[in-house]
Amino acid sequence: MNKKKKQIIEAAQTLFIKKGFSATPIQDILDTANISKGTFYNYFSSKIECLMAILSFIKDEVIDDRQQLALGKSPSDRDIFVKQIAARFHIDKKHNLMALFASLGSSDTAHQELKEFLNQQYLEEVTWMAERICDVFGDKKQKYAYDNAVTCFGTIHLTSKILMDIGKTEIPIEETINFALRQIEQTNVYPPFLQEDYFLPYHQKKNVAEKDIKNSLQQTLTDLDRLIEELENNKLTYYHRFLQEQLKTDDPDLLLMESVINSYQHALQYTELEDKGKYIKMLFVQLMEEKK
């Protein structure tokens, strides 16, 4: 991260926890970070965007910590999985994230941009948990991965709150995590409730090569050929074929594709393929980032 940007983030985080998000004017951030207003707005368009940068910084730290824990270890190692889940809680505690969220007033949490950002982070975490459950417990959990991920997260958070409420704060988070995992180890009897397609837009694709993203986008569109035809929407079919033709070229027109992707996703709203549309948009955004 750019040194100056990191300096602003650290100053803002300290002030948000100490004074509260709403009670911290941008001028206080400028004074604490010893920067000019122009420098602040060079990196952030608003205080909300600065807060989201803080949360992204913490998220990246969690991802890096989890990757370090997994180095040289089997994906099915349950102890590593427990440590990876715990990493989120330890890093949140290190950054005093609970105090940071407590500093947000009701009007702040209602801010649409921030709300969507927090929802995105939470759903990405659920998706990560579902993928790791399959790694640790095997293919038998594939169908129930998202049911189990939500159950596991809910158990951890609620149990942690209850332990705090009754003063049992000395119990390590790892014990709570093991308790939660034991709840999902039992054989699932009923049909799964949460489907994998619901979470397609929240799969993390870090460090994926441009070629791989393009191939994933092409394959996803190809897999939808029959389903798109069945919707009998001429405009949608046109958008679908246009995107496929562009991806066949060595140098697709990304600006034109961006406009069509937005129309394509809009056309899929309120259909059974709405989640697929979100996933395709996510892949395209990643392709755009790789091209920069």
What does this 3D model show about the protein?
- Keywords: DNA-binding, Repressor.
- It holds the Pfam family TetR_N.
- Residues 2-62 form the HTH tetR-type domain.
- This protein is mainly alpha-helical and 292 residues long.
- It has three domains: 1-44, Arc Repressor Mutant, subunit A; 52-202; 205-291.
- The chain is 72% helix and 0% strand.
- The radius of gyration is 22 Å and the shape is globular.
Q: How is the secondary structure organized here?
A:
Layout: H1 3-19, H2 26-33, H3 37-43, H4 47-70, H5 78-94, H6 97-102, H7 106-109, H8 112-137, H9 145-165, H10 173-184, H11 210-223, H12 225-230, H13 234-248, H14 254-267, H15 274-291
Helix pairs in contact: 1-2, 1-4, 4-5, 4-8, 5-10, 8-9, 9-10, 11-13, 11-15, 13-14, 14-15
Give Rg in angstroms: 22 Å
Distance between the termini: 17 Å
Q: Which structural class fits the helix and strand makeup?
A: mainly alpha
What value does the average pLDDT take? 87
Order of helices and strands: HHHHHHHHHHHHHHH
**Uncertain stretches of 5 or more adjacent residues:** none
**How helix-rich are the residues, as a percent range?**
over 70%
CA-based shape: globular
**Number of discrete helical segments:** 15
Please tally the β strands and state the result: 0
Q: Report on the biggest sheet.
A: none
Tally of discrete structural domains: 3
Strand content: under 5%
Organism: Oceanobacillus jeddahense
Pfam family, one: TetR_N
Protein name: TetR/AcrR family transcriptional regulator
DNA-binding region: 25-44
